[in-house]
Amino acid sequence: MAYVLGFFAADGYITVNKRGGQFWCIQITDKELLYAIRKAIGSEHKISNRPGKGNNQTQYRLQLGSIEMCDDLRNLGFSERKTRSLSIPNVPVKYLADFTRGYFDGDGNIWSGLLHKERKTQTATLFIAFTSCSIEFLTKLKNRLSKFCMGGCIYRSKGNYARLQYSSQDSLKLYDFMYNQGHRTYEKRGLFLERKKSVLERYKLLKNAPVV
Length: 212
Known about the structure:
Helix content: 40-55%
Strand order of the largest sheet: 1-2-4-3
Number of domains: 2
């Protein structure tokens, strides 16, 4: 459930209709992951879809009506307008890897490749960043992850968001933290995005490749 909570922090929201009905929702483009999340929470609710227009991908939405669950999320710091007021909940240490991986799959960015291609010796580089409109959230996440020997720097953009960024070495530590410390959970439930994890695996291959 810590993974789901982390993913909700990134891509979830609470909504209240005109009749007072309260719902928590997750809407994403990764259909398989949303079905895995539904299974993890023991739900049989229908997953709806909204076909994309133009270059936009189809969106899939899971919506659950529950005043109790919405109140629980509010008590954890997730309000209806959480974009700027988002604050990291007090996740126990043993579940922090799952929570972090969930947020990473929702609002994380990752890049791996070779730098200095014009030089004789190229440099394999890995870059991980978490994005949020809440500086408070990123600051608290950084502080909690720093206890596991990860540095990271927070950069404010010219827009309305900020990034918590990690260099190659810290990204590897973060990889080990997210995918190894929480291995029993994610292997059992399949709660991770393969396309993001594969970028980390590709970096290892680049790093160990012979110099040409």
